[in-house]
Amino acid sequence: MKVTVDMSLCQDHGQCAIASPAVFRMDDEGRLVYEGEPDASLRDEVEEAADVCPVQAIFIDG
Ligand code: SF4
């Protein structure tokens, strides 16, 4: 599974990091960092993160 975040859309509010802390987190400066190729077992929580993102910036491929 591949995960991409459109950082031109992302507003760093961190809802994704709450929904899927294994894949998304906020760094020390409050910017989003994420795992681009998470294990397939994390699909449900990544989909949840994509759902809760207020700007629909998270894309899942594969
Ligand atoms: S929920 Fe969306 S806007 Fe917020 S940090 Fe995550 S990707 Fe960015």
Outline the secondary-structure elements.
Elements: E1 2-5, H1 15-19, E2 24-26, E3 32-34, H2 43-52, E4 58-61
Antiparallel strand pairs: 1-4, 2-3
Bound molecules: iron/sulfur cluster.
Iron/sulfur cluster (SF4) binds at residues 5, 10-16, 24, 32, 53, 55, 57-58.
Short description:
By secondary structure, the protein is of the alpha+beta class.
Low-confidence stretches: none
Largest sheet: number of strands, sense, barrel closure: 2 strands, antiparallel
Number of H/I helices: 2
- The overall pLDDT average reads 97
CATH topology: Alpha-Beta Plaits
Domain tally? 1
Q: Which strand order spans the largest sheet, edge to edge or round the barrel?
A: 1-4
Bound molecules: iron/sulfur cluster
Over the alpha carbons, how many angstroms does the gyration radius reach? 10 Å
Structural class: alpha+beta
Please provide the count of β strands.
Answer: 4
Binned strand content: 15-25%
Description of the molecule:
- The protein is α+β, with helices and mostly antiparallel strands.
- The protein is 24% helix and 23% strand.
- The protein has a two-stranded antiparallel ribbon with strand order 1-4.
- A hairpin with a 5-residue loop joins strand 2 and strand 3.
- It starts with a strand and ends with a strand.
- It binds iron/sulfur cluster (SF4).
- GO terms for molecular function: 3 iron, 4 sulfur cluster binding; electron transfer activity; iron ion binding.
- It comes from Streptomyces viridosporus (strain ATCC 14672 / DSM 40746 / JCM 4963 / KCTC 9882 / NRRL B-12104 / FH 1290) (Streptomyces ghanaensis).
- This is Ferredoxin.
